[in-house]
Design brief:
281 residues, alpha/beta, six-stranded mixed β-sheet, six-stranded parallel β-sheet, 36% helix
């Protein structure tokens, strides 16, 4: 019998190839596990998302990741929502189960797991979060479920910020509030400050417009951006004495969850982290 050389495909819809370090991480994981799988990054325009999902089904992809701006709109094109997606209202991971597309969200779970691996217990913590988009919704929900006492959301869009605060107040035990982001935002006292926006993502060299003097040595500052790992936001926070965490741990942890959803196997996490660190050298 002839050997089947066809590789199983996984894709990511939304981000150009040269801006997504996930490709190196997942490809390294597949190779380490001896799987004949490929991870393809595909630039999909918002107006083409429905057609992209048709192609996913037609070409029998094992699944996909989704980047901005597709994390909410993609819910229109799947067959089933996981419990966290029902709560968050956004997806970043879809699994093709015999033609039935199931939406998951690994962003928040990856974020929380990354903090846990660094010894951070979210129980009782006060969090300030910059942004209220799809990633922020996932992170906010999972932090609340992990025991955070309070989450303050700072966002330029009042409707998004208020919607996320209402979601957290209604669906979790965590207290949540919204502060409009007007000009340079002041950071209220907190244990953890999170940048969940895309400001600073390659090739953008800038950083969130906040009052960095509000950041102190008693704070943990986390950026969700993995490329570059050491963002200007983190460098400015370190100048204020804060302990800083980059986005690599979140990316590895959420990637490991996605890997298992697609393949059914535990992910080779050290291999994935090594591949990401090499990409960021």
């Amino acid at each position: 019998m002839a050997k089947n050389y066809r590789a199983q495909l996984v894709g990511v819809f939304g981000c150009p190839v040269d801006e997504n370090p996930t490709i190196a991480m997942q490809e390294a994981a597949f190779q380490a596990a001896g799987l004949n799988w490929r991870y393809l990054t595909l630039l999909v325009k918002p107006e083409d998302l429905g057609d992209a999902f048709k192609g996913l089904r037609a070409m029998n992809f094992a699944g996909i990741n989704l980047t901005v701006p597709h994390k909410v709109e993609a819910l229109k094109y799947v067959d089933e929502l996981s419990e966290e997606v029902k709560l968050i209202g956004a997806t970043n991971t879809v699994v093709n189960r015999g033609g039935r597309l199931v939406a998951y969200n690994t962003d928040g779970k990856g974020f929380v797991e990354g903090l846990r691996q660094r010894g951070v217990d979210l129980t009782g913590k006060r969090i300030v979060m910059l942004g209220a988009g799809g990633a922020a919704r996932a992170i906010g929900v999972e932090c609340a479920l992990a025991g955070a006492a309070e989450i303050v959301i700072i966002n330029r869009s009042a409707s998004r910020g208020e919607t996320l605060a209402s979601l957290l107040n209604e669906k979790t035990e965590c207290r949540a509030s919204f502060i409009p982001w007007e000009g340079s935002a002041h950071i209220p006292p907190c244990d953890i400050l999170i940048n969940s926006t895309s400001v600073g993502l390659y090739p953008d060299p800038s950083c969130p417009d906040v009052v960095y003097e509000d950041i102190g040595p008693d704070m943990i500052v986390q950026d969700v951006i993995p490329n570059p790992a050491d963002t200007l936001f983190l460098r400015r926070a370190r100048q204020q004495g804060a302990q800083t965490f980059d986005g690599l741990s979140m990316l590895v942890c959420q990637g490991a969850i996605g890997y298992k959803l697609w393949t059914g196997q535990d992910a080779p996490v050290p291999v994935m982290l090594q591949a990401l660190e090499k990409e960021n050298q």
